[in-house]
Design brief:
318 residues, 12 helices, 40% helix
């Protein structure tokens, strides 16, 4: 235990000196970020026009439905792309060429979402500013308002929508260079260390009535809440709280995930906080305590460098 604690401190000091940035312009998807059933569709249709990318399309779909093809919103938006029936009537396309335009079929709905985005991009193509930002603003507020404003209009809902989707985009894009360490990582690790030896509790969030106990995602949520980053409650949504470093780029404080399906982040079943040297602090299971565990197991899925903007971009209900 003493060796691992020293390892944590040593690795974190080194990590704090890494100041490389996230590369821009990547059009590849991060491994497993898009469920395998939809990856090829998102990759293909996300390249439909220059203002769109697979990661940007993925961010919109995740924000709209959480990849649920059967969801219906209170406003009667339907399916994985959350089309209102009236919008579908004019913008839905037969994406798979089977002769039908089915709002519930991701093979039609995902291509239709991309097609609609690119139609909007054409409407605002002569507007100054970033083409993707203007496209997203047109999606939220309408193309006329973007044209009239000469860019993203001064509407808080629209500005927040553009920022959310562009931040969430980073979770679905494969990074092309090293990712900045976060200032909050050390505080999150310190919180998790303070809970070592605490018994596991399914559904535990550390509340007094729960005896201060946690489950795996309850621990990671509480650790990052301590440093001002609000993560979702469950592990497979925490995966989308920031960009994804590769195994050889892990830094202390990164969230590390484990899945029953290595091609699908929605199948993630466990999360811990990386501390360096191949170890994490985690709340493993009923009957165990919060402890150090190795991360290199057959179900290791990947990692997320949780960021404030990334966490704020996540939908509150999906």
């Amino acid at each position: 235990m003493g060796f691992v604690m020293l390892l944590v401190i040593g690795v974190y000091v080194v990590a704090g000196n890494l100041l490389n940035g996230v590369g821009a312009g990547s059009r590849a998807l991060a491994q497993g970020a898009v469920p395998a059933a939809y990856k090829s569709l998102v990759q293909k249709w996300g390249n439909l026009c220059p203002a769109l990318s697979p990661a940007l399309l993925a961010a919109q779909l995740y924000q709209e439905s959480g990849w649920n093809p059967t969801v219906v919103s209170p406003a009667d938006a339907r399916g994985i792309a959350q089309f209102i029936p009236s919008t579908w009537a004019t913008h839905g396309i037969d994406g798979n060429g089977d002769g039908k335009r089915d709002i519930w079929d991701p093979n039609d709905a995902i291509p239709s979402a991309a097609s609609y985005d690119c139609e909007l991009a054409k409407y605002v193509k002569d507007v100054p500013g970033n083409a993707s930002d203007n496209m997203l603003a047109a999606y939220n507020a309408g193309a006329y308002r973007v044209i009239k404003a000469g860019g993203v209009p001064a509407i808080s809902e629209t500005q927040n929508y553009v920022k959310r989707i562009r931040s969430l985009e980073q979770s679905f894009a494969a990074p092309v260079s090293r990712i900045d360490p976060t200032q909050q990582a050390a505080g999150a690790i310190a919180f998790a260390q303070s809970k070592l030896g605490t018994p596991y509790l399914w559904g535990g969030e550390g509340a007094a009535e729960q005896g201060g106990r946690f489950d795996c995602s309850g621990l990671t949520q509480a650790a990052y809440a301590k440093v001002g980053i609000t993560l979702p409650r469950v592990a497979n949504d925490q995966y989308n709280a920031g960009p994804h470093p590769s195994r050889d780029q892990l830094l202390p404080g990164d969230l590390v995930f484990f899945s029953t399906d290595l091609s699908d982040s929605r199948a993630i079943h466990h999360v811990g906080i990386y501390v360096g040297g191949g170890y994490m602090i985690d709340a493993p299971r009923t009957g165990a305590v919060i402890r150090f565990d190795p991360i290199d197991t057959p179900d290791y899925f990947g990692a997320t460098r949780a960021t404030e903007d990334g966490a704020k971009a996540l939908p509150t209900t999906i």
